[in-house]
Amino acid sequence: MSTSVRTRPVTTRLVTRRVVNTPAKRVIASLALLGLLLLGWQFVPGWTNTPVYVVPPLSDVLKALFDPNAFPRYLENTASTMSIVLTGLGIGVVAGLVLAIVLAQFPTVYAVVFPYIVAIESIPKVAVAPLFIIWFGFGMPSKVVVVVLLAFFPMLVNALHGFRGVDRDQVDLFRVNGAKPLQIQTRLMLPAALPQIFSGLELAVANSMIGAIVAEFVGAQKGLGVLILQAQGRMETAAVFALLIILSVLGIVLNLVVRVLRRVVIRWEMTAR
């Protein structure tokens, strides 16, 4: 009897916590916080007499965002930036994944090559972006190279960690049962490393957006980064905030795509949770 009496409060607390921490309540809390932030953005600059060119109110930013005259420019430059992001992201992710497979299979190659990879990763990409402009010009290739580098390393490191983390006993079991190297890769190592691969992909997506804008800052004819610099030069702070909102929405959309793809591919991960 005493045992059952003691467990009742614990069970009640667990049930209460589950009821409070439901997805619907989390969404409502997030929307409430967003509403408070937007209200503060609208009214605080006026209450504090902050100049419009420093922090414009939300209404000015929305006016700049939905300006029909600016919409064609937003659309054209968004397409230019996203083409750089997606091209560089695709190349960087594939290259990082392939190299991770090679380094995981050949420990000697890993020991020789990986220190140089770390050295290259340690170089700030902003510092080498002007070199890419000199080597590849002001066109798309120089921007893509920056994005490739920023997408390559997160995928390489995370995928390599996933491949090297596979239980060696499972690998030996596959070999004892006559599995070929390709079968070990596709049926054991790749599925086991998928969580780390998708984690690397999420980081690569975020880095790709940053890389594209930084590359456009350094030198480009068009793109959202160019529009930000132009608006800054004209002291149109509301337009700068509008462009930042566009970039945020694009980043959120790409991140959601990766998360949905992760849920579809790694079904057992969601079941375990």
Question: Could you characterize what this model shows?
Answer:
By secondary structure, the chain is an all-alpha fold. The chain folds into two domains: 22-49; 66-268, MetI-like (MetI-like fold, Orthogonal Bundle). It is 85% helix and 0% strand. The protein has twelve helices and no strands. Helix 9 (181-218) packs antiparallel against helix 11. The protein is globular, with a radius of gyration of 24 Å.
Task: Name some characteristics of this structure.
single chain, mainly alpha, MetI-like fold, globular, ABC transmembrane type-1 domain-containing protein, transmembrane, cell membrane
End-to-end distance: 33 Å
CATH domain class name of the largest domain: Mainly Alpha
Instruction: Count helical runs.
Output: 12
Low-confidence stretches: 1-7
The helix-strand sequence is HHHHHHHHHHHH
CATH topological fold name of the largest domain: MetI-like fold
Mean pLDDT: 81
Protein structure class? mainly alpha
Helix content: over 70%
Task: Please describe the topology of this protein.
Blueprint: H1 2-20, H2 23-47, H3 58-65, H4 71-105, H5 107-122, H6 125-136, H7 140-164, H8 168-176, H9 181-218, H10 224-233, H11 237-265, H12 267-272
Helix pairs in contact: 3-11, 4-5, 4-7, 4-9, 4-10, 6-7, 6-9, 7-9, 8-9, 9-10, 9-11, 10-11
